[in-house]
Structure formats: C-alpha cells, structure tokens
Amino acid sequence: MTTATSSEKIFVTKPYLPPKEEYYSYVDKIYETGHLTNEGPLVKELERKLSDYLGVKNFQYVTNGTIALQFALKALGIEDGEIISTPFSYVATTSSILWERCKPVFVDIEPDNYTLDVNKIEAAITDKTKAIMPVHVFGYACDVDGIQKIADKYGLKVIYDAAHAFGSIYKGKSLLSYGDVSTLSFHATKLFHTVEGGACIAKDKEVFDRLHMIKRFGNIGDEHYNLGINGKQSEFHAAMGLANFAHLEDIKQRRKTISEYYDELLEGRLARPSVQSELEYNYAYYPVLFKTEEELLSVFAALNQQGIYPRRYFYPSLNTIGYMPERYKCLVSEDISKRIACLPLYVGLKDSDIEMICKIILADG
Ligand code: T4K
C-alpha cells in the first residue's frame, strides 16, 4: 500500500487557497486606497455578494464565528438566564453562552442527524429560559419548524449556530433564514473561508442595526447608540473571501464528488446520518459512525500509520466537560460522540487518497 509521506499528510481538511494573482489583485486595491479596516470597500463588497449568494438579508460580517454567537446574544438583549443548547457541537457553541454569563442547559440530540431533539426541549424550559441555541451540525437542518413552534409558545428567542450551514438550503430557502439570528464561521477550515471570519444574519432590521453597532464600538463618530466592542473584519480578510468566492461552485462540486465517492467505496459499511429529503446539502463534512469506540480507535491507528488524520468531530459530548456549571445526562450525544469521526474532505483530496482511506477503513473496521 502507498504510504502518505510526511510532506503529503492527509488531514481532515486543508484550506482552499485561490490562485495568488486573484488574491493579489484585491490586495493591490487595498494598497491603492490605503483603506485597511473599519468597514472598507472590500468588506462591503463581500457582505453584498454573500448575502445575495445565500439569499439572506441583514448580513453582518464579523471577526469569527464565536464572536458572532456572542453578538447574537447581546443584540437580542440576553444578558443572563438559561440557554437551551446541544451537547453535540464544537466547544464554541457552549463557551460563547458561558462567556456571556448565561447558563447552557443541554438537551439531547436526534440519533439520525445529530441535531437537537425537538421532543426533549419543552421538558428543559424553566422560568429562567431565554433562548434556544441549536446547531445545524455538519450542515444538517435542525427541525426548524418544531423549534419555532416551541419558541413562540414560550416567548423564547432562537439563535442558530449555523457555522456549518453555509449554502445549505432547506424547504426551498437558505437554512440561515430561520430563527431570530443565525451565525456563520468563515474559519480557514470551513468550506468557504476568509482565513478567520464569521457572520450574523438577523431576521429583524432592528436586531441587524444593533449587531452593526455592537461590532463597531456602538458609535458613529461622536454619537453613541449602544454598548459595543470591536468585531470588525479587515480588508485583507475580505480580500481572501472575495478571491475564494469566485471559486465557490467548483469548491462545492468537488466536495460533493468526493462525498459521493466515499459513499460508493464504503458500500454502506459505516452508518451515516440521514439527510432530510427537503435539504439541499452543502457537503460541509463527511461524518461516519463506527459501531464502537474501540473500532474507531483501531481504524484511527491504522490511518495514522499511513499519515492520514481524520478527526473526532465532535468529542467529547459538551455536557461532560468539567467546567460546565451543571451536570446533564445526554445519552444519545454521549454515545455518538464516542463513535463518530469526520473523514478528510477538501478540494485537493485526490481520488487515490480516498481509495487508500476507504481500503484501510474496510480492512480494519
Ligand atoms: N460553532 C461551530 C458549530 C463550530 O464548528 C465552530 C468552529 C464555531 C462555532 C466557531 O467558529 P470560529 O470562531 O472558529 O470561526 C477547527 C476550527 O478552528 C473551528 O473553526 C471549527 N469550528 C472546528 C470544527 O474545527 P480544530 O481545533 O479542529 O482545528 P485544527 O487547527 O486542528 O484544524 C484541523 C485540520 O485542518 C488540521 O489538522 C490541519 C488543517 N489545517 C488547519 C488550519 C487552521 C490546515 O491545513 N491549515 C490551517 O490553517 O478547530
């Protein structure tokens, strides 16, 4: 079997880099204008292009996907209380809640697509509950209608951590258009990136205006509107975003092709999440579920030996982390997080790499 040499290690992802000249052409513009940050022309252009492409209004580009969640809580006036959220996500979902001095209340997930289990939400609501923060994990859609129904019944806000949902379409519209605020991450490891970056998409114009003020210290000149901080993104980050934007369709297509090739070669031997029939998936990740944690660890060891490094997204289940203020039992999430892994998925991944990965998995699994 061919071994991946150290210079060609295969990680779970590899950031897409546009042709240098295309990036430099935007950098040239920055040098011409001397406008480096503070909502410059490239940031504005990227905001316009992304909101058109995604089919959403009230779009604010910010410095990362974590601060986007914090800004969402602030803009919705949530400064304390309980936030119902999922234990199956990247730690940023929960840490942003804690950082804003709210308490995360964990509700278990669906075994089929790992999103928040809508049937378990009501039992977790108390008189302190302010909002629900579900995650469209791996780009799969939460039960947005069920969640909204509960939010309306109890007067709760809904903030979707949509860090993985860039370009996912649900029931004919962007998955980002559900809830009071949706947030995105444009980190280097995401399918669309601006090196670091994120965004908030607000349902209401007033929330959008507050978000805008929050990210720029709350003031315009000498007028101070509300408490703010610095969440502005630079022109250099926007330049990378604009250069990448031109390649979005190719990026999406290659990720789809890779995912379908994995499907074909793995012959259904590993469990996969079930994609809702009304979801146009964005191919953000390729998660597979092993039968046991031992099997996962054994396959990882075999892959690592060949220089291949998939990731345990997401492990451990967030409700089990030591610094959480209260213990919750989330048996589905605790079980799945021990058995799940994301396989390498990025534009430069070669067919021969995919064949090698699948061969090792099938031989060992
Ligand atoms: N909500 C959710 C649901 C999220 O998944 C995330 C972030 C957030 C919120 C917060 O968004 P941000 O504040 O980050 O915008 C990575 C990312 O850093 C993180 O953005 C992402 N989710 C999370 C799922 O994955 P790590 O610690 O796994 O990244 P790292 O550095 O180990 O990178 C993974 C692999 O990618 C490396 O083994 C090699 C490759 N890589 C990575 C980087 C950064 C490269 O080849 N080049 C690079 O520059 O967290």
Structural summary, described in words:
By secondary structure, the chain is α/β, with parallel strands linked by helices. It has two domains: 6-14 and 248-364, Aspartate Aminotransferase, domain 1 (Alpha-Beta Complex), CATH 3.90.1150.10; 20-245, Aspartate Aminotransferase, domain 2 (3-Layer(aba) Sandwich), CATH 3.40.640.10. The chain has helices at residues 20-33, 41-54, 65-75, 91-99, 144-154, 205-214, 235-245, 248-266, 293-305, 331-339, 351-364; strands at 10-11, 59-62, 82-85, 103-106, 129-133, 157-161, 169-170, 173-174, 181-185, 198-202, 219-220, 223-224, 279-280, 287-289, 308-309, 340-342. Strands 2-10-9-6-5-3-4 form a seven-stranded mixed β-sheet, with helices on both faces. The protein has a three-stranded antiparallel β-sheet with strand order 8-7-13, with no helix packed on it. Strands 1-15 form a two-stranded parallel sheet. It starts with 9 loop residues before the first strand and ends with a helix. The mean pLDDT is 96. The structure holds ligand T4K. The site of ligand T4K has 24 residues, from α3 and α4.
Strand content: 5-15%
The CATH level-2 architecture of the largest domain is identified as 3-Layer(aba) Sandwich
Major sheet attributes = 7 strands, mixed
CATH superfamily of the largest domain: Type I PLP-dependent aspartate aminotransferase-like (Major domain)
Which structural class should the secondary elements be placed in?
alpha/beta
Strand order of the largest sheet: 2-10-9-6-5-3-4
CATH class of the largest domain: Alpha Beta
Tally of extended strands?
Answer: 16
The molecules bound to the chains, other than polymers, are: ligand T4K
Shape designation: globular
Q: Could you give the order of the helices and strands?
A: EHHEHEHEEHEEEEEHEEHHEEHEHEH
Helix content: 25-40%
- Uncertain parts: none
Number of domains: 2
What is the alpha-carbon Rg in Å?
21 Å
Mean pLDDT: 96
Which fold name is given in CATH as the topology of the largest domain? Aspartate Aminotransferase, domain 2
Tally of contiguous helical segments? 11
Ends distance: 17 Å
